[in-house]
């Protein structure tokens, strides 16, 4: 009988403000890890399952004041629980690495610092919904707000008006400045899990910084 168990995979999240380059870097990291022989699942929040993608449409389109902050965060967590239970945990248990384009730190930044829900409320909700399930490594991409927003706005302008996912991009500049600081504060408060990566420079400059952080993480995890 073979008693060998598959080692659990690793869960990496990418976080940061609008247009800092998360989706671009998620794909590059997936390619890098795949080339090194890992089985990698790329996913995103809100989304990743049929139901969560439906919730995504409710959340990302429409007027900025469409949802009350509490309604909004409950929708994000409804999507998140589905995502964790149906995609993330099964993949990790099968030994795969999971890379998620955003996870719960976005709720702490957007619905917390952005919309004013308290840390205690968010921590309690996270505990009830996920039993404190967090990534092994979180890469916080940091860049000037106006720079990222103009890239994101340009991208959305190319999308048909009825398919745009720009509800959060349309929030005030002050909202986006609070987000940037919130992500930096989250990283400072969680130094074991989080790494801040400067998202300025070329796509390949940023990818190199990320790869260095992932190598350091792998060495730490192996040792
Ligand atoms: N380092 C970079 N230099 C120049 N352009 C970049 C860089 N990184 C990404 N871009 C471009 O900026 C745009 C936004 O990038 P991307 O979609 O990866 O950001 P994002 O953080 O996932 O955005 P959002 O949070 O709004 O979904 C894309 O058109 C992408 O090609
Ligand atoms: C997970 C999560 C996301 N958000 C916001 C952040 C972005 O504006 C959108 C997701 O769009 P992206 O193009 O895929 O980055 O949703 C949030 O407010 N709270 C969350 O928990």
From TrEMBL:
CDD domains reported in the protein's UniProt record: TMPK (cd01672)
At the top level of its lineage, which domain of life is listed?
Bacteria
Reaction(s) catalysed by this chain, per the record, are:
dTMP + ATP = dTDP + ADP
Q: Which InterPro entries match?
A: P-loop_NTPase (IPR027417), Thymidylate_kin-like_dom (IPR039430), Thymidylate_kin_CS (IPR018095), Thymidylate_kinase (IPR018094)
**Annotated Thymidylate kinase-like domain residues:** 14-210
**What is this enzyme's EC?**
2.7.4.9
Q: Which keywords belong to this entry?
A: ATP-binding, Kinase, Nucleotide biosynthesis, Nucleotide-binding, Transferase
Record protein name field: Thymidylate kinase
Q: Which organism is it from?
A: Paremcibacter congregatus
UniProt gene name: tmk
């Amino acid at each position: 009988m073979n008693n060998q168990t598959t080692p659990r995979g690793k869960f990496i999240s990418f976080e940061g403000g609008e247009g800092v380059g998360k989706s671009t870097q998620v794909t590059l990291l997936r390619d890098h890890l795949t080339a090194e022989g890992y089985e990698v699942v790329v996913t995103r929040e809100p989304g990743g399952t049929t139901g969560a993608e439906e919730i995504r449409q409710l959340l990302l389109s429409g007027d900025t004041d469409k949802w009350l902050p509490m309604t909004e965060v409950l929708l994000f967590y409804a999507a998140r629980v589905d995502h964790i239970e149906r995609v993330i945990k099964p993949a990790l248990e099968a030994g795969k690495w999971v890379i998620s384009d955003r996870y719960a730190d976005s709720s702490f930044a957007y619905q917390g610092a952005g919309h004013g829900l308290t840390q205690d409320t968010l921590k309690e909700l996270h505990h009830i919904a996920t039993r404190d399930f967090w990534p092994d490594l979180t890469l916080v991409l940091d860049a000037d707000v106006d720079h990222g927003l103009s890239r994101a706005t340009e991208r959305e302008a190319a999308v048909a008006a009825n398919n745009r996912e720009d509800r959060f991009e349309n929030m005030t500049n002050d909202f986006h400045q609070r987000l940037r600081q919130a992500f930096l504060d989250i990283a400072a408060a969680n130094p074991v899990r989080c790494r801040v990566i400067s998202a300025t420079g070329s796509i390949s400059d940023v990818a190199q910084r990320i790869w260095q952080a992932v190598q350091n993480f792998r060495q730490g995890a192996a040792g």
